[in-house]
Amino acid sequence: MINVADIKEALTPRQSESLFDVPLMYCMLMLIGVGFVMVTSASMPVAERLFDNPFHFTIRHVIFLVGSFILFWFATSVPMTWWKRSNPYLLLFGLVLLVAVLIIGREVNGARRWIPLGPFGLQVAEASKLFFFSYIAGYLVRKRDEVQENIKGFAKPMIVFAVYAFLILMQPDLGTVVVMFVTTVGLLFLAGARLWQFFTLMLTGVSLVVVLIIIEPYRMKRVVGFLNPWEDPFGAGYQLVQSLMAYDQGGWFGQGLGNSIQKLQYLPEAHNDFIFAVIAEELGFIGVFSIIILLGVLVTRALFIGQKALKAGKEYEGYFALGIGIWFAFQAVVNIGASAGILPTKGLTLPFVSYGGSSLWVMTIAAGILQRIDFETKMSTRQATSRGGRR
Question: Which of 6, 38, 68, 237 is the most buried (most CB within 10 A)?
């Protein structure tokens, strides 16, 4: 827990800088607020049809939000030493969850990704991402010299990743695997891995993704539909065509909040994976640009917090923050790119905006960890400065 006495001791009248990262907090809250409004707007037609209650998903989203704020407070209160000490056990726990979901998980649309918890479901891949990134950060601290000097240190975390990736692909969930792969490679590169190792791994990863797409007909259909959705606008390209129509109708200033046409049973997953298309239709280019700016600031602050922690000698905290920043950035790019027809559909949520309890919970925990890292970095810096001044 954050010790109030330590805070008072470390602060002086001249040190009025906030103990937490204010821009990060504002961006998170604004994205959550926009997400709540847009989930309500985008989900009302489908909720009315399926549950005879237009606010069904809104009520559930409110419950998710309450849980998120509790988890955020918890994450800001847990010392980073606990995460550093516990990361091997969290990795093992994530592995157990990934095995358990294949046995007792609930199947939805041909995918077995959720462990039922009463009226809700836990998407274990979301929690596993956070646990895995915590492990990678700890590994880079323990084996930094190996990572920089030989292929052995570079290969070990990729073996762990391969086990996680195999279990996630069994669900199946290629999108999560791609996010984990990009984040892992990014962290290894930042930790000083040699360029030939980096490019070899990237080439291997891209090759494996291509193979995974080719061997699964439904993935191949997505790629074909993405390349030319108008060739089959009522089949493989249907979802993307409807999404592009939403973008087109949005114009500069949008049709107005609540006035989307595509959400009226035309665009599947309008409140989830394709919520950005509804934002584009209702709020236009101005709304889209504003959301992208908020996401950009959020990612920038995460990377800044990681860099600052590394400079302060907090290597685990620094790598963990950098991993979270890369994760947020890549997942946002994939979600927006898929809805805009730039990338194939991957079924990834838009951070803090899309409907989905597991994603929202895990990402608010990650944001809380960023705030905790920033707090501990500032406290250590001020205490060091205070000791230096007394000398």
Answer: 38
